[in-house]
Amino acid sequence: MGEWPPPVPDPPKRRSGALLAGFAALIFLTALVVAGIRVTGELTRTANAGERQRASALELARRWQSWPAGKIFPAELGYSLELGGRETARLVGIGAAASCDTGLDSAAAVAVRPYGCRAVLRATYLDQSQGSAMTVGVVTFADERSAALAKGRLRSAGAPARLRALAFPDSAVARFADSAVQKSAAAAQSGPYVAFAVIGYADGRPPPRDRQAGLLPDVADDLAKAVLTPLATPARVDCAEPGWSC
């Protein structure tokens, strides 16, 4: 004997709706699985060459903000004398980041302005004999191309374009000013940075009229490059370490 009362079959519309709902759920579940696989793959895959290059460039461009000031301007800088031998300049003080109009003379500021000069970092050192003051500076840009263009413009500027001297009150370089500068480095560039250095008597004496009298050693290039080289040397990219954006 059959069931009583006999089962009522589902209406065709209800069966179709259930099938569609089940199909939609299956599609949604499949999409979640695929998305999870893709995310897992992105998180675990090795960065390609292009991503590593971009990460390296970004880390380099941020160093002027992320590095401690004492790492950019170490306690000592070595330089070579024209007649041979090596000496050491010792740090007197590090200035706060300055605008390009403040940290550079007018000729230099005008030259770098079109290329997006961000800031000027400066520190002043005393030479080994403690008679000469040496201000070293780094001009920062967004990228290497901008810095290279700025360097070219600086070197072609009609008037001498240089860094402003940085004095520190109640120190051996308290009187060091732009009027005392005798030597300056031609702009050196590497990565997104351009470096300068200026040298003069620590006591603020102006350059002698007789250029052969009391001439200071021409070591500005050495000092600028001593700061620029470590700052602009790319680091090994490690995407697993904090701070890298691969």
Brief overview:
The chain has 246 residues and is an alpha+beta fold. It has helices at 12-44, 49-66, 69-72, 100-103, 106-112, 144-156, 220-232; strands at 76-80, 86-94, 119-126, 132-140, 181-184, 188-190, 193-201. Strands 1, 2, 3, 4, 5, 6 and 7 form a 7-stranded antiparallel β-sheet that branches.
Describe this structure in words.
With 246 residues, the chain is α+β, with helices and mostly antiparallel strands. 37% of the residues lie in helices and 19% in strands. Strands 1, 2, 3, 4, 5, 6 and 7 form a 7-stranded antiparallel β-sheet that branches. A hairpin with a 5-residue loop joins strand 3 (119-126) and strand 4. Helix 5 crosses helix 6 (144-156). It starts with 11 loop residues before the first helix and ends in a 14-residue tail after the last helix. Mean pLDDT is 83; it is low at 41-45.
The total of helices stands at 7
SS-based class: alpha+beta
- Terminal CA distance reads 74 Å
Report the count of strand segments.
7
The run of helices and strands is: HHHEEHHEEHEEEH
Mean pLDDT: 83
Question: What overall form do the CA principal axes indicate?
Answer: elongated
